[in-house]
């Protein structure tokens, strides 16, 4: 996964109160719609101090407020320690309750008793690439700000939809609305890569979550159990056909390996051909571009494939074997706080598929608070030559153990000698 894409904008660089020179259009948009935007803050109960700030917006006559899940995630993870407040455009502070969450799309709906107030009406919207947009929010707790940007359509390589906004979203603007000049909500501010490259959750996901947050007996209180269930449902969908018989394969030296296993992957390659080295290495890497925010130190929902071809004309068999063993033993496991995940448990053995013999290592660790979800790393070294080898690594986060086994078996079948 490209690390820039998942950077929550609560952690991004500092914003200006307005982008560039003020214009009549921007001033008018701000004047007409600023009172529909709120500041969302999470309070640490022991100190009564702010732990996190973000933004939100009124989205219904009965006072529903939309924000990002990552803004209020600590309230779900540790409800006894944190609480949520919203501050309206007039500076009034209200306690807020989390009504519904969509952890996969990074959305949450709050209720702070703000009924009958001016609000946006989320509805389907169609825009052309290049349309001017306006993002509202509270960057760095400096006060409500407006930023102009350009609509650049949906990202192509994503597990879940994101709108590409050419504009400067900044920390504290998470959860605020991005609108057109008529006040139609286009999306929710969610993340940034800096350099005028920002991202929005499309409004159709907001509409779906608001429908789930409607009052009624089926409205479930958000909890970590619900987060775990949403993650399990999600990974079952995107892993269902992963590495099946239709997966594209390419030649990498004398081996066949898979590439771009689904449209939401991007693949890159590089090589090392230094004259002073006794061996050469070629990398082929495919990864999803984004993952799911769970906590400041924990994310989920990513899948990465890395193939390393190593070859030599100078090393003898024992020295090549020592090099090959070091590459296989390299720690490629994703990081994770022990408060969220258990220690890694690993199993290593030799396998043979058709005429290909492989040394395999599978390591898994369990999520402590989210039910039967695991991170897993499968590493494969093809055996049989003393001058060339392939080390292939599959990393998965936030998947069930059944899917660890199922996807790993499929992965191994796609690695072979040519």
Describe this structure in words.
This protein is α+β, with helices and mostly antiparallel strands. 17% of the residues lie in helices and 40% in strands. It has 6 helices and 24 strands. The protein has helices at residues 24-33, 69-77, 203-212, 224-238, 317-329, 401-413, and strands at 37-44, 49-58, 64-67, 82-87, 93-102, 107-111, 132-137, 145-154, 163-166, 177-179, 185-194, 197-202, 249-252, 255-258, 265-272, 280-288, 292-295, 298-300, 303-311, 345-353, 356-366, 374-383, 388-399, 416-417. The strands form 5 sheets. It has a 7-stranded antiparallel β-sheet, sandwiched between helices. A 6-stranded antiparallel β-barrel has the order 1-2-3-6-5-4. A 6-stranded antiparallel barrel has the order 7-8-9-12-11-10. Strand 2 (49-58) and strand 3 (64-67) form a beta hairpin. The longest helix is centred in the middle third of the chain and has 15 residues, at 224-238. The model is unreliable at 1-24 (pLDDT under 50).
Instruction: List how many beta strands DSSP finds.
Output: 24
Structural domain tally:
2
Distance, first to last CA: 28 Å
Bin the strand percentage.
35-45%
CATH architecture descriptor name of the largest domain = Beta Barrel
Compute the CA-based radius of gyration.
24 Å
**What do we call the CATH topology of the largest domain?**
Thrombin, subunit H
Would you kindly provide a brief summary of this structure?
This protein is α+β, with helices and mostly antiparallel strands and 418 residues long.
SSE inventory with pairings:
Layout: H1 24-33, E1 37-44, E2 49-58, E3 64-67, H2 69-77, E4 82-87, E5 93-102, E6 107-111, E7 132-137, E8 145-154, E9 163-166, E10 177-179, E11 185-194, E12 197-202, H3 203-212, H4 224-238, E13 249-252, E14 255-258, E15 265-272, E16 280-288, E17 292-295, E18 298-300, E19 303-311, H5 317-329, E20 345-353, E21 356-366, E22 374-383, E23 388-399, H6 401-413, E24 416-417
Antiparallel strand pairs: 1-2, 1-4, 2-3, 3-6, 4-5, 5-6, 7-8, 7-10, 8-9, 9-12, 10-11, 11-12, 13-14, 14-24, 15-16, 16-19, 17-18, 19-23, 20-21, 21-22, 22-23
